[in-house]
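Build the 3D complex.
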Amino acid sequence: MIFGYAGKFLEVDLSTEDIKETRFDDDVLKEYIGGRGLAAKILWNRLGSRWETVDPLEPENILLFLTGPLTGFFPGGRICVSGKSPQSNGVVGSTVAGEFGIELRCAGYDGIIVLGESEKPVYLFIKDSDVEVRDAGHVWGKDAKKTVAMLTKECRELLKSRFPRYGEWKEPAMLYIGPAGENKVRTAVVAAKWTHAAGYGGYGAVMGSKKLKAIAVKGTGPLPEVADMEKVKKLMQRVCEDVYEEELWRRWGTGAAGYEVGAKTSSEPIRNWQEEWHDDKSFGVDKFENRFWIKPYWGDFGCPTTCLKVAMVKDGKFKGAITDNPDYEMQAYLGPNLGIFTPEENVFLVSLIDDLGLCGIQTGNVMGFAAELFQRGILTREDLGGLELKWGDAEAFAALAKKIAFREGIGDLLAEGTYRAALKIGKEKNADLLSYAVQSKGVSIGAHGIRSGKDYPKIISYACSVQGGDHTSTAGLPLDWGGSELMEIFNDSGVYCNFNTFGVPRNVRFQFYKAVTGLKLTRKEWCYEKALRVLQMQRALLLLGGPDLKWNPKIHDDNPSRFYEPLPSGPYKGKTVNRARFQKKKKEYYEAVGWDENGVPSSEVLRRLGLDDVDRTLKKLR
Amino acid sequence: MTTKKEPIWIARDLAKCSGCRKCEIACSLFHENRIWPEASRIRVFMLIPGVDFPHFCAQCEDYPCVEACPVDALSVDSKTGAVLVDKEKCTGCAQCIDACPGRVPHMHPKEKIILICNLCDGDPQCVKVCQEGAWNVLKTVSRKNYAYKLYARTPDEITRDLAVKIYGEIGKDFI
Ligand code: SF4
Ligand code: SF4
Ligand code: SF4
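Done.
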């Protein structure tokens, strides 16, 4: 057994309530590590041969909750949620912060594999090796805050009654869905606390399709044994010390960006990306900090940054709205993207999105899309069930968010996510609406634009990513550079918070890997072999796609058409993405990762990586 | 070692806790050489999200736990003021838990002995990490003649109070 692993995975079939332990060979763990890498491998092995027919929202989909060997050791604990994505029809490694991964490993498991579909709403309760499927009828339909409160209480009472002499029981860690997940909304999240979320991928809908309301886990053991504890301690300290230098990053988190990304880099979505520049000081981080943050530092297991905050509106119309941060993505997508530039309205909307179990990025994007259609007269008041969807009207957007979460009226179409909604509404209206859909491969683009050229994503970042619009997994060259998708795959496979790599030398993560597992791994080996293998599998599954949609790289390895319109305002007015330059960069990228001119992984690269079965399956795409 | 005059006490400003749980990590590494949240002598509770706080011994001036132990497994360290657990004598009967006004002691998850903070023999590891990160929830001070026992409260009681402190009156709705 390799150091740093609990050594077994929990496999639960909700159709039969069968619960068993699954192990993976050391070789598999050495190659794929955990989290996102292992997810790609498991999904390829189990579903690869019939991928195109697997409906992500049907029982045959596999839902994965995977840690990695660095979970709990590298500062900032996370868990990686994956499966066949109802957004991209490929595989997205979607991570969320919290203690879930730590508790799970302390319970003796490196991950959970969920199969099938329950007949009635259930939740999983794990206490070390005791695993139960429990009724969740009483929490089905409940919002985020109610769900957390009710299940925390219930699980603590269970623990207390079963182990009365243990002393006080801490709360188990929990992942859950809100109403949106229950209603299989493709923009629904898997949530932790209030509300950290695995949003990209839409796995809240997969949980909902399986009628799995939540998973609560309490592990009383230690984290797995490591190869060199002294070294691990030193590295933990090393990361923390580097992070402590970043005073303002710690103080503001990404929350500074709601103003900065608009004003300075001019790359913030404004009114569905019709603009990317604003200089609205009313939306400054100082306003959030002074008026709404009731907790200045909030973090998850082992985190030195504690970039999260708790925000609350204390009086006025939106009194009582509570959310974490809001972080930059939530500020942008539920702020300027909807024409909203006042922090309290933003906090109100983020709080509501949290409660409904929606993803602020995906839902903010699709609501912006709908508002632009309203602006252009394509969607009318009647279409919107009486809503005047005017830019800046927070209450109208709140009403729309509820329609989406409960799939009411127009909400039923928007609940399909921006790309699918554009196709469906376009068909009804007999118009091509894709030009207003700012997404890549079914995944709405994170709130970092590429037109000004001043932000970190580059012109191929989203178009060539195997996770579409995911701003935490952007494609770039050189392959072993900080901004390469292959390095992101390491964070998501070791499974820890990538925010704690800021200001920390790139190689520290590989030193960490060695100290924990005892295995040497160089950046080169990672980027040119192991991660590349994961990338090819994700690419293969993305291109296989189906059943409702398929991606053609010639058409879909591209930026949303909006990114070819010149920026209409701000210091970078007139700047846009040059198509010829984009094609050139894309070609360079294809060559670097070994994709043929049609964007399909070449036989040569697949065979070199030992992926002969992937090669055989991809023949039909060549 | 701390520069504070012994015996010492760990002053605590619970509402400032970030929930980073570095104190749990430091305590379990020091005492168990593992990262082991449930074996930590200081445990961070988060019964309501955002209301995170460390729960650990307050070294009550009359040490009710020590009094309650039927086998004399608990004693007070005359140097630091900490409660010491005699592993040989402790039977894991849990009477100290019931005697403690804060229900602070808890069972070691693997061995049948009670866990209570021993102030790391005068050099509290939890305080170090909390200070390094500048959260300053924990701070070592010299022990004086104060009503420390007021800090021995159950997690539920602390949660109720902090929820109102942090969220205002609506904090009550989340309990
Ligand atoms: S180290 Fe300090 S801030 Fe972090 S959890 Fe412990 S008491 Fe809270
Ligand atoms: S807080 Fe509890 S464990 Fe600590 S001295 Fe008081 S009674 Fe004993
Ligand atoms: S002083 Fe030492 S034993 Fe007590 S809680 Fe802190 S780290 Fe643990």
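Chain B touches chain A through 50 residues (CB under 8 Å).
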